[in-house]
Amino acid sequence: MAKQTAKKADLSTEEKIKDAARKVFTQKGYAATRTRDIAEEAGINLALLNYYFRSKEKLFEIVILEKMQILLGKIGPTIMDERTSIEQKVEQIAEHYIDTLVANPDIPLFVLGEIRNNPDKFANLVRTKTKIVDSAFFKQLAERRPDIDPLHFILNILGLIIFPFIGKPLLQLITGIKPERAVTLMKERKTWIKTWFLAMLEAN
At 25, which CATH number? Predict the structure, then answer.
């Protein structure tokens, strides 16, 4: 019984540290975060944090991999699926990304900030076997429009989906719309993105 209680306490402390790390890294980024900041956020002393996680790097690795799994976890299978059409893939990508970013609005700026500030560290942490240029989606785009580099379409769909979340604070500032209306706009884009993307694909 005592061992079970101790194990639960360990798990509770470990999760408390992870929660604090998620919050502090998201707010400050890797470079500006100190282990002491995480310990203070978790309400524990620095020695206890070091007992569970020996370095800031280890905690950051856990947090960034979690964020990337949330962001990209379902995209790999979607773009590699040879059985679905371009139209189906675009619909699935828009649906997944927008729902994910509505639920996790901090992810785009956090990830982009870490790519900008620590490109080598970020690249080493998120290496993946799924490369867009090797995907069924990329090949389908090349076959549909051999006159246009498929990367243009990839950039367009990423811009249509991700930029509105990055620019949402500015949108609210210059239009005065309330946060609830901003979320509604983002959800409406799930339908419009497919329409706009296919129009670009067919344009002369």
Answer: 1.10.10.60
Tens digit of each residue's pLDDT, the chain (204 residues): 444 444 444 558 999 999 999 999 988 888 899 999 999 999 999 999 999 998 898 899 888 888 888 877 778 889 999 999 999 999 999 999 999 999 988 888 888 888 887 777 677 766 654 578 899 999 999 999 999 999 999 999 999 999 999 888 888 899 999 989 989 999 999 999 999 999 999 988
Are 110 and 178 in a shared domain? yes
Count structural domains, the chain.
Answer: 2
Indicate the pTM of the whole model: 0.77
Asked if residue 51 is part of any domain, the answer here is yes
Decide if 133 is inside a domain: yes
Structure tokens at 31: 């470079």
Q: How many residues does the chain have?
A: 204
User: Within its chain, how far is the Cα of 125 from the centroid?
Assistant: 14
Q: Look up the domain containing 46 and give its range.
A: 2-63
Cα 176 versus chain centre, distance: 27
**DSSP label of 204:** -
